[in-house]
Design brief:
By secondary structure, the chain is mainly α. The chain has three helices and two strands; from the N terminus they run ββααα. A hairpin with a 2-residue loop joins strand 1 and strand 2. The protein has a single domain, classed as Four Helix Bundle (Hemerythrin (Met), subunit A), CATH 1.20.120. It has a two-stranded antiparallel ribbon.
């Protein structure tokens, strides 16, 4: 990142990073002299502003990425829960149908056969309910991981060092 000022008619004007970069593309003469800037404090304040702008851009980018990941997780969780709940509802409907069939059954062998099927479906219903809780645990774990990732992205360290000063004259 470059930061600088240009003096015109005795007045200082801020020049942006892009303009500073373009100055390095110009031909020039090298003159090793000690440079003293009478507006060093102002230059340092502008550096802080530019650094903060870069940090804000970084944070905004990661906030957008987090929001996208959060939405993706929400949709995945919703689809997962709906799928399991749909299977559970199908099992419940099968149980209801078999219970009706058992009440209509005429002989005991048929009732026994249907009741065995009902018992198997009841076990499946319990497994489906258990899988809902397991899915909710998995969803919660993924949300926790996502939040942990967000916390890690929020940790950043910014420092800046003055590498060089250039005094130039455009002729």
């Amino acid at each position: 990142m470059f930061n600088g000022y240009i003096k015109r008619a005795g007045k200082w004007y801020t020049i942006d990073n892009e303009f500073c970069n373009k100055l390095f593309q110009c031909d020039g003469q090298l003159n090793h002299e000690d440079i003293s800037l009478d507006n060093q404090d102002r230059l340092q304040e502008d550096v802080k502003i530019h650094v903060q702008a870069i940090v804000n851009e970084y944070v905004e980018k990661h906030d957008k990425e987090f929001a996208q990941q959060e939405e993706k997780l929400y949709k995945w969780a919703e689809d997962l829960e709906k799928g399991i709940e749909k299977k559970l509802e199908e099992v419940k409907n099968q149980i209801k149908k078999l219970q009706r069939d058992a009440r209509k059954a005429i002989n005991m062998d048929e009732k026994e056969k249907i009741n065995i099927e009902i018992q198997d479906l009841e076990k499946e219903k319990k497994r489906q309910r258990k899988s809902i809780f397991e899915a909710q645990d998995e969803i919660e774990e993924k949300r926790d991981q996502l939040l942990e990732t967000l916390k890690e992205h929020k940790k950043y360290n910014v420092s800046f060092d003055e590498i060089f000063k250039i005094k130039f004259k455009i002729v």
